[in-house]
Amino acid sequence: MNHSANTAENLFTPPPLAARDLSMTHGRRPVISALNLELPPGKVTAIVGPNGCGKSTLLNGLARVHAPASGAVLLDGKNIHSLPSREVARQLALLPQDNSAPEGLTVADLIRFGRQPHQGFLRRWTEQDQAILEQAILSADLAGLADRPLDTLSGGQRQRAWIAMSIAQQTPLLLLDEPTSALDLGHQIEVFELIRDLARQGKTVAMVVHDLVSASRYADHLIAMVDGQIIAQGAPSEILEPALIHQLYGVHCEIYRDPADGTPVLVNLRKCL
Amino acid sequence: MNDHAVANPLASSALVPPLTVAVFFVVAAVFASLLWGAGPIGPADALKALIGQGSEEARFVIMELRLPRTAIAVVTGLALAVAGALLQALTRNPLAEPGLLGVSGGSAFAVTLAVMLGASSATLTTVVAQVGALAGCSLVMLATRSRGLATDPVRLVLAGATVTGLLLSLTSVLMLADQRAADEIRFWITGSIAGTPFSHLKAVLPSLAVAGVLVVMVAAPLAAMSLGERAALGLGHKPGRIRLLVLVAVALLVGGATALAGPLVFAGLVVPFIARAIGGPDIRKTLWLCLPIGPTLLLVADTLARIIGAPAELPLGVITALLGAPVLLYIVRSGRMPTL
């Protein structure tokens, strides 16, 4: 089977990823109930909401990390839990929040793992794998760092290396759980711009983002969640209103437009009295 | 270096030089084990016996005693080294060692119980040892789920040492209660391959072969699990199933090794430690390197056990402990525990 032809085709038309009446629980506690959603193909979707609203749970559900209590996640119309995990991994890459690497693992070592879903039992590393590895290193702007251990890199470089692993996975879909949570501003921008690049190449991206301002700057599509429900979704410039911010975080604010690109900017934030 | 040049991985030849050196050491250790013993047959006589010359007595000692014993040391070393590497990868704890964590202890206790109840066949002993090891393994995995033990490598080892101590005390109690069983296992329980009959090796080999197949199956997914369970799942692996397969493989290996050599401590710690120092953190490289280093360590230890106190013999377990304890102290005292 020729995976490269397969994947190239998929990159142009990503298979749709959708949630149908999806309910998820933490133990017995319901976190998400009867949620419906479809990720817009080839776009960056940001899932936002207050702590505990279920946004990470939703992402983990979409990535088949946790099974739904009821309803289903559909990848290309098929229940994701009925598909072989390896097959899903060729369509959908996941960058979890709790990732960690053993001491001394190099950037190239990490990125090589991205080829695992494409490698059969005992299949050796091929020229093609090597070419994809080198391409992933270039795409994530890691040239020159390939042989550096991850623990010697900056937070932004490290996160780009993890994203490069998902690039090597050559999936049309990419899910990221708070990809910038531990990064300073410069590194956040580094990572978000890489994510934008990937969407430009045709990937469908969904990410949980803590910071609403970055979410609205770098996402094409916002999904706003409260109490396990989607309360609004759409282009950031269209749905971000003071009323929505109030509903999400219980704060008052005014919204200005960034004169450069029209991105909504929250100002004069204050607590409700 | 050109920015585009990225070294080719595992499939390439990076491991060939260290493996070649290590294989050379195994061969040297095999010869040492054949040539030196506690008895009066020296290296010169042993060499002659190996090529079919020399006295009848020398040929008997070499072919019927030292050769099987050498084979048993090779297999035991291999099994314990691989089991240690697997358990360390699974618990992500560089100190997780079957002997220290009570897996070997559980296995030895089960065997003692079985011998008391009248079991005598090698096959049965092996199965019992493996079931005991599986129980010990499961206990370890349960412990790693509990708070405090999961995040602190040293505390897990302390808990394991407690369990090991308890199991060995219980074993001693059993031995007090049954003189016949005690005589049968007295030397074995301290860790020794001096009296292990060749038939035991034959009984153990099939299950070790099964473990070998499991190891080949889980090596790549286990390497991915070092990136975190979710990352491994994202790469298409099934962490729950991998954990189970690794656990079974460890139980088969440790149970097999314990059936042959008794509860040996530290072999599963020292060998993967050396392998990681040479090959880096990837479990696949560690496993490859364990294949020659494990047998080398056990052969050297067993040869030393024979010649240090000749004509008497020290238990093999004493030597592995002497070699292993400093390594444990070194890792614990090296300030920062390496994360796996």
Key terms:
heterodimer; A: alpha/beta; Rossmann fold; six-stranded mixed sheet; 10 helices; 27% strand; globular; disordered N terminus; B: 340 residues
How would you portray this structure in words?
The complex is a heterodimer of chains A (273) and B (340). Chain A has 10 helices and 12 strands. By secondary structure, chain A is an alpha/beta fold. Chain A has a single domain (3-271), classed as P-loop containing nucleotide triphosphate hydrolases (Rossmann fold), CATH 3.40.50.300. Chain A has a 6-stranded mixed sheet, with helices on both faces. In chain A, helix 4 packs parallel to helix 6 (155-168), helix 5 (127-139) packs antiparallel against helix 6 and helix 6 (155-168) runs parallel beside helix 7. The longest helix of chain A is centred in the C-terminal third of the chain and has 16 residues, at 185-200. Chain A is globular, with a radius of gyration of 19 Å. The N and C termini of chain A lie far apart (63 Å). The relative contact order of chain A is 0.16. Mean pLDDT of chain A is 89; it is low at 1-10. Chain B is mainly α and 340 residues long. Chain B has one domain (93-333): ABC transporter involved in vitamin B12 uptake, BtuC (Orthogonal Bundle), CATH 1.10.3470.10. In chain B, 73% of the residues lie in helices and 0% in strands. In chain B, helix 1 (16-35) packs parallel to helix 12. The interface between A and B is large, with 48 and 33 residues.
Quick structural overview:
Chain A is of the alpha/beta class and 273 residues long. Chain A is 34% helix and 27% strand. Chain A has a single domain (3-271), classed as 3-Layer(aba) Sandwich (Rossmann fold), CATH 3.40.50.300.
| Oligomeric grouping of the chains | heterodimer
Given the structure, what is the number of helices of chain B?
A: 13
Order of helices and strands of chain B: HHHHHHHHHHHHH
What is the terminal-to-terminal distance of chain B?
29 Å
Q: What general form of chain A does the structure show?
A: globular
Report strand % of chain B.
under 5%
Rg from alpha-carbon coordinates of chain B: 20 Å
Supply Rg of chain A. Answer: 19 Å
Strand order in space, largest sheet of chain A: 6-7-8-3-9-10
Total beta strand runs of chain B = 0
- From the coordinates shown, what is the CATH architecture of chain B? Orthogonal Bundle
Low-confidence segments of chain A, ≥5 residues, pLDDT <50? 1-10
The fold-level CATH name of chain A is Rossmann fold
How far apart, in Å, are the first and last alpha carbons of chain A?
Answer: 63 Å
CATH superfamily of chain A: P-loop containing nucleotide triphosphate hydrolases
What is the CATH superfamily label of chain B?
ABC transporter involved in vitamin B12 uptake, BtuC
Biggest sheet architecture of chain B: none
Helical coverage of chain B, percent range: over 70%
Percent range for helical residues of chain A?
A: 25-40%
Order of helices and strands of chain A: HEEEHEEHEHHHEHEHEEHHEE
- What are the low-pLDDT stretches of chain B, counting only 5+ consecutive residues below 50? none
